[in-house]
């Protein structure tokens, strides 16, 4: 009799467990994705500077000291809210910030080419208006570096230490709370 | 004015559900017949006022009443009338009202078609429905009210219905599905009523069966139409994605199929009783779980509604109360349910046990595949994805024993049968099937692919065995005397056979080409020539775009003239591909228009899809079997006895 | 002479039309390669979309992943290698088949355990009834019995069917 009871009460127990997970699930973001880049070295690349294509940046030139890399674009609405805060970080806290410009339009196989001069004008105007946190910007036209960094859009931010190892990959904008809770501890430790 | 009326009607309906939950309960406790007899009347009231509420919402949509928030968010004055109707249940709030309409409608049906049930049983069932309704009506009135107003500032025009939903599929698919989901609450209520009463004789199984068959039939049809609609509407020729919301409809279907078969054992042989009750609880619980998943934001899906944590928590509480409560009741009372029917492993009961095991195993796979990413993340192991490749692989294994058992089961006798029936004839038939399948595939496709071979061999197996069984039965019983439920079995099994064949063949032998074509060009795929005649401008009621005029030839004969469209809906700023399909019993020809390329050519995707229609043909045949069960004379006769 | 040139030109134009074949947007070196490519497009998940594989999605990252997949497949890489490449950049999230660990092994183990358990239960129940009378009952006979029971709706029949719980 008791054996049958324990078998027939089993579904209820499993269900209660399930409810627990569903409840937890209600308060977490289902589109959240783990980064695959943590503790991996910065990928190799050789890309031109956004403003001057004769200057070439590489992984070497980038990672001599701890650096915050920010993936952004002028088309990205959230980035506009992020710029003032990043500027504050670079000016007041001395955080070295480098930008990777992510262009969505460049698709040569479909015959679509990004208008670099237009981008430069837009970028200049925006940084003047909202603040310029970037030491310089890397133009990732083919989005090859972005692919290697596991970037799916903008804004995304990386913290790289002096050895060139990626320590943090944050998807979404950087603001006071994100800096304080997620980035600052690692940044302070890296320095 | 009308929206106010609708809102008020909802409140009254809620009131009825409260009364339905309480008075019959008191009546049963105190054995007060008058209070018990209130139940059917209260149910009628519940239905009538829910109907008024639903009609008021539809009226608001049809009259472009943008003072109602729901109308402003989901409709537009340029939207064609039939889609304005569909938009009334296209949103979270509206679809929930549709759910309640179905719920009260099914309850109403129980109230008027259960006169042969003992009074206390009927009262109990309606009371349980009342309990369910109290929670649901409370939900819609408080956090999900479709009659919310935009006043005092209302928009001049609405945000329009998502273009993807502006299709005939939207008008029939959700109502059919909901009829199924909600209909399963009736069997659930029967089971709970029986658990409360302590009476689970085989007559309980007999009464439950038609209600289960009806709901199951609707659910089958709803899923079939959904699959067809996705294929026709989404533009890339897929018909099932194992998307969490699709899985949410498939799980109740799997368990309901198991329930239908288990009920016949409980009815005829007084066995599987406790298991059948559990299945009845599980089926409706899975419907509710599905509702939760779609509306809570817990999973990512193209089907999911926009979400709100308050709603998620409320629905979770409803789920917890209904399922938790019923599983608790089951846990406590199940041990006292005794099945007296005895049988050996090699018997019809054994076969049906096999059917049930495999269907429930399939449900476990789908449930785990859908929820494991969530659990995996919450226990800190990281984010993973489980999708098509996983489910396809598992199901391609499970279908083999399932179809094999399905074939021979109708020939196996109840209680005990000879072992060699499981060996001699099947061995012979399986060889025949394999040879026929091989010959078929070799002749038609030259290349014999494993999964297609499996699908076609199983198809032939089921068809052969069903024919053999029919032949044997007709020797003993004349055609006119055969009960409809026997035909239901034949239809159900043959329908499934078509689905298995269709899936196997189309998944393995569909071909496609991505091409770029100028006007006048043609592309060849398989034996067909796809000629791009010219490109035309499109001007629709609420869209504009391009249409590619195509002609498809086979051996220089015209097969079809098609228009593959690319539509731009300005209000929602959405671009949609309307694929052009030439449908046929043996193959579909499918053209999807892509982008205009810089050199003036058009990118297109052309497909040849063999046997894809067999999937939906099979689905329709299976759902018909549900209807046949309903009209079986044993259910009709009993209503005339009373 | 002029006529001759015109005829030749006309002929060339005519032949040119026949020979002008529709271009495939994507070209492969072998059918095996094409198959691998198509399978990969169905197995890799778009990291940014609402549950879509990279075949169907229009997102920029999906396009880039398709492009890269094509490149790698044409280089001769096998399916597992391409998947590893993508997983190393986008995580397990980008693969529609889960990695095998203790938690995900439940996906296969639980149904298998359930099936085994149910078969054992079936054996138990059938062994219990070995001692009893084993007359096989044909389905039509059963239907006839049921009809008889329905015909007479009398109390004795209710008792016969009855199995009242505790």
Give an overview in words.
The complex is a heterotrimer of chains A (191), B (642) and C (166). Chain A has 191 residues and is an alpha/beta fold. Chain A has one domain (36-190): Glutaredoxin (3-Layer(aba) Sandwich), CATH 3.40.30.10. Chain A has helices at 2-26, 59-62, 77-92, 116-130, 144-148, 176-190; strands at 46-48, 56-58, 67-72, 97-102, 137-140, 156-160, 166-171. A five-stranded mixed sheet of chain A has the order 5-4-3-6-7. Chain B has 642 residues and is of the alpha+beta class. Chain B has four domains: 1-166, no CATH class; 204-307 and 329-336 and 344-413, no CATH class; 423-510 and 618-642; 511-611, Tick-borne Encephalitis virus Glycoprotein, domain 1 (Sandwich), CATH 2.60.98. Chain B is built from 18 helices and nine strands. Chain B has helices spanning 2-30, 33-62, 69-74, 81-87, 92-113, 119-142, 168-197, 202-234, 244-269, 273-296, 309-333, 348-378, 388-408, 424-445, 450-476, 484-509, 613-630, 633-641; strands at residues 511-517, 522-525, 528-539, 544-554, 557-569, 574-578, 580-582, 587-596, 602-610. Chain B has a five-stranded antiparallel sheet. The longest helix of chain B has 33 residues, at 202-234. In chain C, 63% of the residues lie in helices and 1% in strands. Among the domains of chain C are: 26-94, Cytochrome C biogenesis protein (Helicase, Ruva Protein, domain 3, Orthogonal Bundle); 99-125. Chain C contains seven helices and one strand. Chain C is mainly α and 166 residues long. Chain C is elongated, with a radius of gyration of 34 Å. The chains are: A alpha/beta (191), B alpha+beta (642), C mainly alpha (166). Chains in contact: A-B, A-C, B-C. Chains A and B meet through helix 1 of A and helix 10, helix 11 and helix 12 of B. Strand 1 (511-517) of chain B pairs antiparallel with strand 1 (23-24) of chain C.
């Amino acid at each position: 009799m008791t054996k049958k009871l324990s078998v027939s009460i089993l579904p209820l127990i499993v269900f209660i467990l399930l409810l627990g997970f569903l409840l937890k699930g209600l308060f977490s973001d289902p589109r959240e994705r783990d980064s695959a880049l943590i503790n991996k070295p910065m990928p190799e690349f050789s890309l031109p500077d956004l403003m001057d294509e004769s200057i070439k940046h590489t992984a070497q030139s980038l990672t001599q000291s701890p650096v915050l890399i920010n993936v952004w674009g002028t088309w990205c609405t959230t980035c506009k809210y992020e710029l003032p805060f990043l500027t504050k970080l670079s000016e007041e806290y001395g955080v070295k910030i480098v930008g990777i410009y992510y262009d969505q339009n460049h698709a040569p196989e479909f015959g679509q080419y990004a208008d670099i001069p237009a981008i430069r004008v837009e970028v200049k105007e925006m940084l003047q208006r909202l603040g310029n946190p970037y030491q310089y910007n890397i133009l990732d036209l083919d989005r090859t570096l972005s692919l290697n960094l596991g970037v799916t859009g903008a804004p995304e931010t990386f913290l790289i230490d002096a050895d060139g190892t990626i320590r943090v990959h944050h998807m979404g904008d950087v603001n006071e709370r994100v800096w304080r809770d997620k980035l600052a501890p690692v940044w302070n430790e890296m320095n | 004015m009308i929206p106010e009326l609708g809102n008020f009607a909802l409140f009254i309906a809620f009131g009825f559900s409260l009364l339905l939950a309480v008075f019959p309960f008191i009546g049963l406790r105190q054995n007060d017949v008058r209070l018990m007899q209130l139940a059917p009347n209260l149910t009628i009231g519940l239905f009538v006022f829910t109907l008024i509420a639903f009609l008021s919402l539809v009226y608001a949509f049809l009259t472009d009443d943008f003072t109602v928030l729901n109308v402003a968010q989901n409709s537009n004055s340029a939207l064609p009338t039939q889609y304005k109707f569909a938009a009334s249940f296209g949103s979270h709030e509206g679809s929930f009202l549709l759910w309640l309409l179905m719920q009260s409608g099914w309850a109403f049906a129980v109230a008027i078609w259960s006169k042969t049930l003992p009074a206390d049983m009927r009262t109990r069932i309606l009371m349980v429905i009342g309990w369910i309704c109290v929670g649901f009506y409370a939900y819609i009135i408080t956090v999900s009210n479709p009659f919310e107003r935009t006043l005092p500032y209302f928009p001049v025009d609405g945000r329009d219905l998502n273009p993807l939903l502006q299709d005939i599929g939207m008008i029939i698919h959700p109502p059919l599905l909901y009829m199924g989901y909600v209909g399963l609450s009736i069997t659930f209520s029967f089971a709970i009523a029986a658990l409360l009463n302590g009476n689970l004789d085989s007559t309980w199984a007999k009464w439950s069966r038609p209600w289960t068959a009806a709901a199951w039939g609707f659910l089958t049809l709803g899923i079939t139409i959904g699959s067809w609609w996705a294929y026709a509407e989404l533009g890339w020729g897929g018909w099932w994605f194992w998307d969490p919301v699709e899985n949410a409809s498939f799980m109740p279907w799997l368990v309901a199929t198991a329930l239908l078969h288990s009920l016949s054992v409980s009815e005829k042989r007084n066995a599987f009783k406790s298991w059948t009750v559990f299945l009845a609880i599980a089926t409706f619980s899975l419907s509710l779980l599905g509702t939760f998943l779609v509306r809570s934001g817990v999973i990512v899906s193209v089907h999911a509604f926009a979400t709100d944590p308050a709603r998620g928590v409320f629905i979770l509480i409803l789920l917890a109360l209904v399922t938790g409560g019923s599983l608790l009741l089951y846990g406590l009372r199940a041990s006292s349910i005794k099945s007296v029917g005895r049988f050996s492993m090699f018997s019809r009961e054994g076969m049906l046990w096999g059917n049930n095991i495999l269907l429930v195993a399939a449900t476990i796979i789908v449930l785990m595949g859908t929820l494991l990413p969530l659990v995996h993340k919450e226990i800190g192991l990281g984010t993973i994805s489980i999708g098509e490749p996983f489910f396809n692989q598992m199901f391609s294994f499970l279908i083999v024993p399932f179809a094999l058992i399905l074939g021979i089961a109708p020939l196996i006798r109840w209680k005990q049968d000879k072992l060699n029936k499981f060996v001699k004839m099947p061995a012979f038939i399986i060889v025949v099937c394999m040879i026929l399948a091989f010959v078929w595939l070799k002749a038609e496709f030259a290349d014999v692919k494993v999964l297609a071979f499996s699908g076609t061999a199983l198809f032939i197996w089921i068809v052969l065995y069903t024919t053999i069984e029919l032949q044997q039965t007709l020797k003993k019983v004349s055609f006119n005397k055969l009960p409809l439920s026997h035909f239901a079995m034949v239809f159900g099994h043959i329908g499934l056979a078509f689905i298995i064949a269709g899936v196997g063949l189309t998944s393995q032998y569909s071909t496609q080409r991505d091409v770029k074509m100028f006007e006048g060009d043609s592309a060849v795929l398989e034996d067909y020539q796809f000629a791009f005649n010219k490109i035309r401008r499109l001007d629709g009621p609420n869209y504009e775009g391009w249409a590619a005029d195509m002609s498809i030839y086979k051996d220089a004969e015209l097969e079809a003239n098609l228009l593959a469209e690319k539509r731009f809906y300005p209000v929602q700023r959405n671009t949609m591909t309307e694929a052009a399909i030439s449908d046929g019993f043996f193959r579909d020809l499918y053209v999807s228009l892509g982008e205009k390329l810089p050199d003036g050519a058009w990118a297109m995707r052309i497909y040849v899809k063999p046997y894809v229609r067999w999937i939906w043909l099979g689905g329709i045949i299976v759902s018909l079997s549900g209807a046949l069960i309903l009209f079986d004379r044993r259910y009709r006769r009993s209503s005339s006895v009373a | 002479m002029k006529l001759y040139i015109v005829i030749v030109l006309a002929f060339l134009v005519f032949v040119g039309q026949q020979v002008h074949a529709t271009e495939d947007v994507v070209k492969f070196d072998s059918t095996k390669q094409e198959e691998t490519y198509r399978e990969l497009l169905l197995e890799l998940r778009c990291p940014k979309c609402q549950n879509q594989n990279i075949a169907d999605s229009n997102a920029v990252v999906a396009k880039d992943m398709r492009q890269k997949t094509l490149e790698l497949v044409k280089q001769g890489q096998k399916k597992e290698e391409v998947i590893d490449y993508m997983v190393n950049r986008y995580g397990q999230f980008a693969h529609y088949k889960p990695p095998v660990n203790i938690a995900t092994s439940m996906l296969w183990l639980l149904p298998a355990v359930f099936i085994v358990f149910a078969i054992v239960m079936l054996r138990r129940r059938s062994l219990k009834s070995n001692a009893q009378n084993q007359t096989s009952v044909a389905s039509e006979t059963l239907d006839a019995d049921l009809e008889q029971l329905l015909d007479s709706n009398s109390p004795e029949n209710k008792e016969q069917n009855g199995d009242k719980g505790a």
